Fold these 2 entries.
Entry 1:
Amino acid sequence: MNGVAAQNPPQDEQGNWGPCMLALANDKQRHFVSALFEAPRKKGRLIWAARAAGYGSTNSSNDSIAAIASRLHADQRIQAAIAEESHRQLRGLAPGAIAALERLIDDPAAKDHARAIATVLDRSDPLMTTHTVKVERDDRPTPQAIDKVLARIEALAARAGLALPAPKLIEGECVELGQGRAST
Amino acid sequence: MTPDILCSFPCGYNSNFLLAGWLKRELQDETLEPAQRLEMLEQLNSLTHQLFDEDVLRAIEPMSDVEYSMFLELMKVSPGDNKKATFDLMRREDVFGKFRSVNPSYDLSMRTRR
């Protein structure tokens, strides 16, 4: 790999860059990102992609290229471009995946035959589930809140030397409703 | 009222006496909701300040019907939200004196500070 690759990125890719790839500083960086997906092995992928993009020279050591590649790889714009390119590549795999799925469905003896059928059915006619959420709101004051207000009224009235009229008595039978509430 | 009592309270406090008497009268209303009662009591207690302390407040009696009608007339002087004209009148000794004559508890409450 040398600088020639970076100066002449593949023509078919030039027109297909996404916004994150286009936002990169130059074609060298774009080629670095795209080379990451073409690296033959996982180990040394960054160095391979940096060399493929034209960074360094033929005499550059792997260590110096690794430093350049690591810096490039840590760049936020490069990271965004890698994410964008990953999505693009993933979508590109769909035709192959569908063909493989068709082969599985056509072969009743295949180990994952039933799973393949279920996968297709799930996507073509997905199961519908309905959730009913009932929200009940109770704004009635709690007995504790009522006691607190009455106590405050008593205290303020005493402080002002006021004899307040007695509270109205409500005749009725008390029925316990639970949760600390009572009704007449 | 003797001058020494008058001198013990600056005229700026006159409105506190009248408002305390008025709020105490309103608080006698049995139909008040607890929330209204609490709000009025908070207002009443917020009147206390330096000279106008708890003892003074406690000694003030609620307005009588006569005093209440006088108070309502005084409020009519400035019908909007801006009650400056009303409060200016309350500061006048000739006006406040008429209220003192119908509610002796104002004088008695002032004596608690002596």
Entry 2:
Amino acid sequence: MKKLLFALSLLLSSQTHAALNVFACEPEWAALTQELAGDKASVYTATGPLQDPHRVEARPSLIAKARRADLVVCTGAELEVAWLPVVLRESGNAALVPGSAGYLEVAQFVKMLEVPTRLDRGDGDVHAGGNPHIQTDPRNFLPIADALSKRLAQLDTSNATYYQQRLAAFDQQWRAAIAKWEAQAAPLKGVQIVVQHKGFPYLSDWLELIEVTALEPKPGMEPSAAHLSQVLNTLQKQPAKMVVRAAYQNARPSEWIADRAHIAAVELPYTVGGSDKAKDLYGLFDDTIAKLLTGSK
Amino acid sequence: MRKQISTRAAIAALLFQSATAMASSVPTDNAFNPAFSLILSGLYGQLQQTPSAATGFAMAPAPGHEQGFNLGESEMGISASIDPQFRGAATLALDPAGGVSVENAFVQTTALGDGMNLKFGRFFSGLGYLNEQHAHAWDFVDQPLVYATLWENQLSEDGVQFKWLAPTDTFIELGAEMGKGRGFPGTERVKNGSGAGVFFAHIGDDIGIEHSWRVGASLHQTQRVDAESTDVPDLAGNAVTNLFTGDSQTSGLDFVWKYSPNGNVRNSYVKFQAEYFRRKETGDLTYDTADAGANVSDTFSNTQSGFYVQSVYQFMPRWRVGARYDRLDSGIAQVGALNAGNVISNYAYTPTRTTLMLDYSPSEFSRLRAQFANDQSRQGLKDNQFFVQYIMSLGAHGAHSY
């Protein structure tokens, strides 16, 4: 009995230790939440940097974590459509019902790119709301941080001032970092690249990279041998400096092209934890720019 | 006058503005359309034997296979939030021979909170691991033998399901169902109260980011009333029709383990699963109920069981192989004295089946599959079965459960 009581008290104390339990769908939002909430929140990350966030399973562990969360922070724009609805439904957590204060889709706060003009699965796995890989442009983090901070304050009013201070500090530091990255990335302007998955429009938009073509014939479809040789043809007419992929993507198609077209294959961290150096949000972009600069040489 | 004109112009401009604003978000009836999906599937079957029940399981239904080309089950799914409290979902199965049957039609609460979920209507029972999965999500063309014989592929119930998820880091879920008892082994009948009940518990978690698992236990109980089984072999070597009335109690264990390098299921993964069910039936059996039949009634009880183990391996994106082993135990029945000379109590045969599968998924929405099975579920009727199948999904692509 004593043991049981001890276990129960442990359970309750772990629940009340941090003010807010946050369930972040992707590592970048977990990192941002941690920046903005410090020790006022305990953050759980639902997907790892080497997992394709489109294709995660609604595992029992995710459902159990969502059960106790006060806030779920996700990209939205249908990125998590294959697993999040089941996780939220099965969790039986009324606080996380889409539309309530505990549910935050951050894609709504940024300008979406590649919003399809027609919706047809013949075009591959397109997202009606636009390309969901918004985390590759650091400028997107500013409005998202603002919205996330307000949401934290709304859910945890007693620490509202604290969240406000952390937001102000983050905002200032982040703007300075963007200026630094833009200066470093100046030589990348107008550089032609090939992407494996159409996952970099925001990065290209920010750094003014030019995407020549993609290895996936249609979004979400594995690159086929026939399509890869087509890409090779395109590259002969329109040479690119490098082929870019996210850390979670299969390396083979990129390397196949890189070998034959004699260009660099660059694996970008894509999210926090996606490479050894991408330990936090700052490291993510430090490393992204460094890798692109190396690839463009 | 001039002022009037300018006001009119202003109004016109306003109207025009609101008209253009509306053009981008016209509130039509269409806007609230539910998610709609359609699964198209079809099958080619090459069998050496005509389908029939496994030896020793003639008192259970035998949802066998069809030979040649046949349209599999096409299913149409519709789901949407009803209001802030409820969500509704229906799956209609389109029968190849024509006609539509209601596979699922249920309402689910969305805002009970505290880990509680209530579901009512017609739904697949939450027992076992495979029972809740729709045919398009199966890893093989058919269900394991133990599901085919003990649950007529899947237990579907008209009733109420209550689930509670514990507020713990480890996934611990408890569930209870009460229903009409329409799905086998229940017998549909007109009466007040509940005809069948189910309890289940699931525990699951991750080990690192690469491994995940879930174990479960379930219990099903129903009363069978005048359950008729035809073509049951008897000791004299005839095929007769019997009636059974009594209690049916089934317990089950299920286990799933999945492994994926770096947790990246898109590239490759291994899934291993096993389930065991054991059913005890106690009651009265009426032997040979045909018009000119013997019509002898006496006590009858039997315990039957079965299990399967299977594994699916996605060795590269889009390609998977799978293997499954099935086994049944028809038990040794306790037959009352009056029927001791009529009813077979011990078939002394162990039905087994070994199945291999290869499938290819050009995208998330399409799958092509080939399957080979060495079926020894019927004594003296060894069957090498070969299948080719397609499964295509159109429209809304709902999320899959674990």
